[in-house]
Amino acid sequence: MESIDHNGEKRQVAIGIVGPGLIGKTLLSQLALQTDRLREEWGLELQVFGVTNSQWMLLSATPISLSSWQTALESQDTEASLDSFTYHFATSPVADRVIIDCTASAAVPCHYTKWLSLGIHVITPNKRLGSGPLADYLAVKEAQRHYHAHFMAEGTVGAGLPVLSTLQSMINTGDKVAKIEGVFSGTLSFIFNNFGPGRPFSDVVGKAKAAGYTEPDPREDLSGMDVARKVVILARECGMQIELEDVAVESLVPEPLQSTSSVLDFMDQLPQFDADMEARASEAAEAGNKLVYVGLVDVAAGKCTVSLQSYPADHAFAQLSGSDNIIAFTTRRYSQQPLMIRGPGAGAEVTAAGVFGDLLQVAQSLGA
Amino acid sequence: MESIDHNGEKRQVAIGIVGPGLIGKTLLSQLALQTDRLREEWGLELQVFGVTNSQWMLLSATPISLSSWQTALESQDTEASLDSFTYHFATSPVADRVIIDCTASAAVPCHYTKWLSLGIHVITPNKRLGSGPLADYLAVKEAQRHYHAHFMAEGTVGAGLPVLSTLQSMINTGDKVAKIEGVFSGTLSFIFNNFGPGRPFSDVVGKAKAAGYTEPDPREDLSGMDVARKVVILARECGMQIELEDVAVESLVPEPLQSTSSVLDFMDQLPQFDADMEARASEAAEAGNKLVYVGLVDVAAGKCTVSLQSYPADHAFAQLSGSDNIIAFTTRRYSQQPLMIRGPGAGAEVTAAGVFGDLLQVAQSLGA
């Protein structure tokens, strides 16, 4: 949807970035590369007027240079304050304003309702609101409706894969979702794409850790909580009023190792439990199956689970490679065969692209 | 993106439907089921002010009932005229107007530029513009830019699968497409999912025809031209200035049968060529492969092909079932592993949903 205003006027969107870490930084680079084209082809001026990390913030009355923001932020002596950041955008002369939360913090989402109430649109790849307390989530949805502002979070599930937008389009055009099922963790996808009979599970986890696929503490991935958060986000999008605690999660962290103090100790002791996983993998292999760590939103049954499942080798879930995610939607319209989306569901470039896609959606809804 | 105007005012969109055949009719039913919800939740009034088939048309100054439009149209004595239809919408007091071309006609797209120049948005599942003469396509894209109107055609490739929207989001956020590859015909997917060594090809085609999966003349599917049209649409979206004739298409209609007069004669003579296909299927099977009829947009190499290819049994393209489409995007961001979308890519319900999704996108861009 490209367009230029009849009078050649540009539509200006003022952007605030909270948390210029890996994703935020990548987003700013992607923006820098596209601003000229978007100005010329769409008549759209995407301008950054504020960047804040947890320590310092850069606020400006004029657009911040996308090539030198980092130096400017590093030389700041204005201490970070989300209240001042909010005030800066609340009083901006630019009518259309978007704050992008690129943090993974639980504290930043506490500001979403206020931002929306000020008519500031909110975009985030942060899973904390969507999978946090239901009341907070519902308050944001209500503020979105009431104040005519957008809240978009494509980057929270499957990074840049079109997961939430596809789901929303299904629901908005009247389809009825029966279930959403898939592999939602790139880390666990990588682990189970490399694990099988004869390969110690602890060895595969160690390799994934060494290759940088896991969190510094691999238990954060193996606990299944990241998958559970994505499941909650999808479930709520389908109208299920669910809390994170309502998801039945099968943790892959052996019970005795859950309280091990150090990561090193955990990795040292993990081989003691290899026999259990070997048994499960062998059992699956004997049946011609493969182990897959799957999240399930069963809308029809009203329940959500995250667990290690055994799938026939010719099933799409058993055919993944690398750290691919796969998401299968079974709906009234897609009842015989599900609609499936597959591809890398993690990484700064694709996650930032998911956020950027949301930003362009919001810009288009403002008439760009 | 749900919202209600601050003052509780509704945003009205006037809709014209050209060609209330199977898809158009299904779209009108889907609309009927969602209008209340969209009014309440989005403050959006989707109202149909005109419906025309090739013989008669129903034009109204007030919204047409979505439950009795068919009876009203059947009792019309106003002869169909796209000029009068255009005039009706050009002079509509409703500011936001959308004409939806649900025909497969090459004549209707001749009106798109005029509609766009009047500020009327155009949505269509009709492949004729996107795969027709390049000059006509470019004129529509130019009109879209110049007159600030939308042209959307998600339903042209993969029916309701999010193919074009995903591609557009990639391009707009700065990704670079290297190639798009896939199974774009539900009919040919069904045929090759059922064909293999020991099963006569003519037999599988006969079964597909009997089950209603093919066009009345199966040569229309087997010629590969429908796939070639989709390939051209995707290629142009990537910026390739290509004509339908530029696509190298491998037709599955044996040369001597291309001019056979009747469908019956064609089906009668097809078994004479089974040995050729059997040989190819056996050769593939011996290598552990499967035959798949694939469309390819090779952006990097600047060429498009449609051909029967042999894929390893564990390749996603060789894993399809039913009449599934699959589309794989290899891009700068998705270079190691492509982004893939898979699912039923034909059928009235899902195609109409693709059109409806476009309509909601347009409505959102108008501030709904």
UniProtKB/TrEMBL annotation, chains A, B:
**Name of this protein:** Homoserine dehydrogenase
Give, as in the UniProt entry, the pathway in which the protein acts. Answer: Amino-acid biosynthesis; L-methionine biosynthesis via de novo pathway; L-homoserine from L-aspartate: step 3/3; Amino-acid biosynthesis; L-methionine biosynthesis via de novo pathway; L-homoserine from L-aspartate: step 1/3; Amino-acid biosynthesis; L-threonine biosynthesis; L-threonine from L-aspartate: step 1/5; Amino-acid biosynthesis; L-threonine biosynthesis; L-threonine from L-aspartate: step 3/5
Domain Aspartate/homoserine dehydrogenase NAD-binding, residue spans: 19-152
The record's keywords, sorted A to Z, are: Amino-acid biosynthesis, ATP-binding, Kinase, Lysine biosynthesis, Metal-binding, Methionine biosynthesis, Multifunctional enzyme, NAD, NADP, Nucleotide-binding, Oxidoreductase, Sodium, Threonine biosynthesis, Transferase
The protein's GO terms of the molecular function aspect are: aspartate kinase activity; ATP binding; homoserine dehydrogenase activity; metal ion binding; NADP binding
Source species: Coccomyxa subellipsoidea (strain C-169) (Green microalga)
| Gene3D superfamilies named among the record's database cross-references | Dihydrodipicolinate Reductase, domain 2 (3.30.360.10), NAD(P)-binding Rossmann-like Domain (3.40.50.720)
Q: Which GO terms describe its biological process?
A: homoserine biosynthetic process; lysine biosynthetic process; methionine biosynthetic process; threonine biosynthetic process
Q: Name one Pfam family in it.
A: NAD_binding_3
Question: Binding positions for NADP(+)?
Answer: 19-24
Q: For NADPH, which residues are the binding ones?
A: 103, 127
The protein's superkingdom reads Eukaryota
Substrates-to-products reaction catalysed: L-aspartate + ATP = 4-phospho-L-aspartate + ADP; L-homoserine + NADP(+) = L-aspartate 4-semialdehyde + NADPH + H(+)
